[in-house]
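Translate structure to sequence.
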């Protein structure tokens, strides 16, 4: 069953490179990025895991915990981590789930049989502090993901959760934002006293709130 935006992220207990964990207990009231890897000892995954480890400070600033999954066992992951440390110049500082029976991969619909019967696709789930799924991404095995984009989406989600705005095409933190179309001009005037550029009644651009 596909997981959709707004669904509660399914809970599970699984072995990981940091010991056994129960997903909801582990993430508590943080955000989480749960991302799958087709298989251990694969080149693209090696680069993705190294880059994600280097984002630790960026994740910490945003109250985000990373957790990876690959359908091999934890002993295999531990051998692979040594290679990641050596080639990517960083220790892996988040858990990698061991999932040889594909319990978690199936729970999150990470195996797409018409792509591969045995390997997961590259899935990403961004899950909020209330355990709601806020972003899903599915990439093919041969294409590494852009983790800067995942951070950008988290920035947008955290901004738009706190303010009645949406972020336009190619938005980056600090760029102008769009006032929620659900607000009347009178309501917008109270929330955005600095005003806005009304390009159309439904397209009101304002400075990013702080
Ligand atoms: C990789 O991570 O490099 C990879 C995995 C599966 C298929 C192709 C590439």
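Result:
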């Amino acid at each position: 069953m596909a997981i959709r935006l707004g669904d509660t992220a399914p809970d599970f207990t699984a072995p990981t490179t940091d010991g056994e964990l129960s997903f909801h207990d582990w993430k508590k009231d943080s955000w989480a990025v749960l991302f799958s890897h087709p298989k251990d000892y694969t080149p693209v995954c090696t680069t993705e895991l190294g880059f994600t480890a280097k984002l630790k400070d960026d994740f910490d600033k945003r109250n985000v915990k990373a957790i990876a999954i690959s359908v091999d066992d934890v002993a295999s992951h531990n051998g692979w981590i040594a290679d990641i440390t050596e080639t990517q110049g960083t220790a892996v500082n988040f858990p990698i789930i061991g999932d040889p029976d594909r319990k978690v991969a199936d729970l999150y619909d990470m195996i797409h049989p018409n792509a591969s019967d045995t390997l997961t696709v590259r899935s990403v789930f961004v899950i909020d502090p209330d355990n709601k799924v806020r972003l899903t991404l599915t990439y093919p095995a041969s294409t590494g993901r852009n983790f800067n984009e995942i951070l950008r989406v988290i920035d947008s989600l955290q901004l738009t959760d706190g303010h009645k705005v949406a972020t336009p095409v190619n938005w980056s933190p600090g760029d102008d934002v769009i006032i929620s179309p659900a607000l009347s001009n009178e309501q917008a005037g109270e929330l955005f006293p600095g005003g806005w550029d009304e390009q159309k009644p439904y397209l009101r651009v304002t400075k990013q709130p702080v």
